[in-house]
Amino acid sequence: QVQLAESGGALVQAGDSLRLSCAFSGRTTNWDTLAWFRQAPGKEREFVAAIYYISNYKGYGDSVKGRFTLSTDNDKNTLMLQMNSLKPDDTAVYYCAARRGGYTSISKLYPYWGQGTQVTVSS
Length: 123
Hints:
single chain, mainly beta, 11 strands, about 50% strand
C-alpha cells in the first residue's frame, strides 16, 4: 500500500504562484513513479507532471510546461509542485498519484491516489 496526502491548495489570483505538497508513505517496493493530475468540474482528469524515481526523469503536461516544476524532498518523503504564472484555467482539484511500472501520463494506470487539494485561480 501507498498513502498519499496533498496539501497547499488555495484561492489565488491570476499570475500568482502556489506550491502544492504530496506527503507519501508506504513500502517503496509498491511504487517507482509519483505524479500530479488535476480535474476541473465537468472535465476529465488531466495529467500535470510526473517523476520516475529510478532515473529521476520528470515530465510535464503541455498546458503547464514552463510554468510548473516538480521537486522532491526525500528526507521528508514529500513531492512538491511549484506552480507559477497561474491562470484561471488552472483551477481544479489537484491529485497526487503513485504507481509501480515506470513513467506514464495515463491516469488509469495509477492505482494509488490521494484525496486531492483545491486550487482556485481568480481572474
